[in-house]
Amino acid sequence: MWPLLLVCLVPPGGDGRDIRADDPWSAVDGTLDTLAPARSDGPSWGVLVRTFYTHAPVEAGAGTNDVSGFVFEDIDLYLAARYDDLAWRFSADAAEGTANLEDAWASWHALDWLTLTAGQFKPRVARSGSVPEDALLFRERTFLGAAFDEHDDGAELGGHYDQFDYWLAVTDGSNGEGSDHFWSARGEWALYDAGWDDLEGAYGAPNHLRVLIGATKFEDVSISTAHGGGWSSDLALTFGPYSFAAEYADLERSFARTIDVFDGHLITLGDGQPRSFTLSRRVGEGGEAAVRFETADDADSTEALVLGANWRPLGSLARFVADVAMVDGDTRDFSIFSLGVQIGSSGITRPFIGDGAP
């Protein structure tokens, strides 16, 4: 059944592979190849599906019995194109049964060091919030990543110079089309080597050290005329089969973002210093094991230890993910086990080093 379904999702064109009628899995391989992020001029489209089985012995949400069962985390469809210095992208997520628009932007690469983007997009605040869903190590993002995993209407200036990238964005903010806005200014420095695609872990990492340091200042004026923002910093490095990532933010007293990373058990970040640390190691061919510790520094003193493993067959865009999150706080103490599979691609690459983004 899965091979037939994926054959129906094949985008127009293809790579000319010989798909044998007597081997339905060869059709799957050919389909997955066509769902890879586009890196050449012209149009492209694709699909990303992430589905998980979840088991929670203790209710993590509002509180009847448990949250066990199957759930679609993402059903993303995208359509994008790039022609010389112009690019655009539309994407939507249908995981909740209706198509919710995410990306709807156009960009112009005006100068070597300047790109202008306008429309609906995700401002780059914390690096973990900008990692595409198909490049996550675990089922969920970090607390900070989830807080800044939001698409909004606005405009952005960005660019690359030597070992530095920058983003300056202004969007509507939490008050929608009101007069006050959310703004952010971010810089990243590729201390060793060059910046690499936005992904968590050491998948495809070379056998030498890469270090990427980022810092952001942000303010949501729509929340408050003062003290409604903060600043954040993050570090990502890979060295052969190993990867390490750390992030920290200092959120001012009026800043507030409510996130859902534990199947309905909501966490509100604000007036604190949330942080996370992630370590992973490649195992065998296509496998990776990871551990993450994070604290929300919220009113409930929420902390989480997450253990995970994933396996991606070499050369394939299918990946299997398993993790267990052990959560503790003043009024919460539970664990959630998730086992899932993802197929396809979001079609997103890191800005300024690939053709898949402005």
Task: Please describe what this structure looks like.
With 358 residues, this protein is mostly beta strands. The chain has 2 domains: 1-34, no CATH class; 35-344, Porin, CATH 2.40.160. The chain has helices spanning 2-8, 24-34, 127-130, 143-147; strands at 42-55, 69-83, 86-93, 100-111, 114-121, 152-161, 164-171, 182-192, 209-220, 229-239, 242-251, 257-259, 267-269, 275-283, 287-295, 303-311, 318-328, 333-344. The strands form 2 sheets. Strands 1-2-3-4-5-6-7-8-9-10-11-14-15-16-17-18 form a 16-stranded antiparallel β-barrel. It has a two-stranded antiparallel ribbon with strand order 12-13. A hairpin with a 2-residue loop joins strand 4 (100-111) and strand 5 (114-121). It is globular.
Class from secondary-structure proportions:
mainly beta
For the record, the CATH class of the largest domain is Mainly Beta
Strand order of the largest sheet: 1-2-3-4-5-6-7-8-9-10-11-14-15-16-17-18
Model regions low in confidence, pLDDT < 50 over at least 5 residues: 1-36, 60-65, 354-358
- How much of the residues is beta strand, in percent? over 45%
Furnish the topology, listing elements before pairings:
Blueprint: H1 2-8, H2 24-34, E1 42-55, E2 69-83, E3 86-93, E4 100-111, E5 114-121, H3 127-130, H4 143-147, E6 152-161, E7 164-171, E8 182-192, E9 209-220, E10 229-239, E11 242-251, E12 257-259, E13 267-269, E14 275-283, E15 287-295, E16 303-311, E17 318-328, E18 333-344
Q: What are the main properties of this structure?
A:
Porin; two-stranded antiparallel ribbon; 16-stranded antiparallel β-barrel; mainly beta; disordered C terminus; 4 helices
